[in-house]
Design brief:
This protein is mainly β. It has a domain at 56-120: Immunoglobulin-like, CATH 2.60.40.10. Helix content is 11%, strand content 35%. It is built from one helix and seven strands; from the N terminus they run αβββββββ. It has one helix at 2-14, and strands at residues 56-64, 69-72, 75-78, 83-88, 90-97, 105-110, 115-120. The strands form two sheets. The protein has a four-stranded antiparallel sheet, with no helix packed on it. It starts with a helix and ends with a strand. Residues 1-8 have low confidence and may be disordered.
Length: 122
Amino acid sequence: MKRFIALASFAAACHPTRPPAAPEPAGPSPALLPGPVTTFAPAPSAEPPALAVVDSGSLRIEVQGGTCDVLVDGRSLGTRAPQEVLLSRGLHQVRCLRLDGTGPSQRVRITDRAATVAFKLM
């Protein structure tokens, strides 16, 4: 029994127990932070913002008497009809492509007014 007490005393003298260390703070210490932080917001304007000039128009596409893949300038818009799309102003090619690869096409000029293209499939 004396041996055990002597060894325990020796271990305590060689390896003193320390209290557990406090966890380190997550960020820099307050002493390292710069002075007060100032944020700047834009000053409120007395005038409302100007509206951007939109250089596009709308096109309504209708298909009657069947279904087809609707293409505008070669890009497929799917088989959903009627549908309305925004296009840039100018001339566009609209095609109604059937499963067999044939189908009517129309050229349409897009302006600031709404345009409509209708296809009748029989």
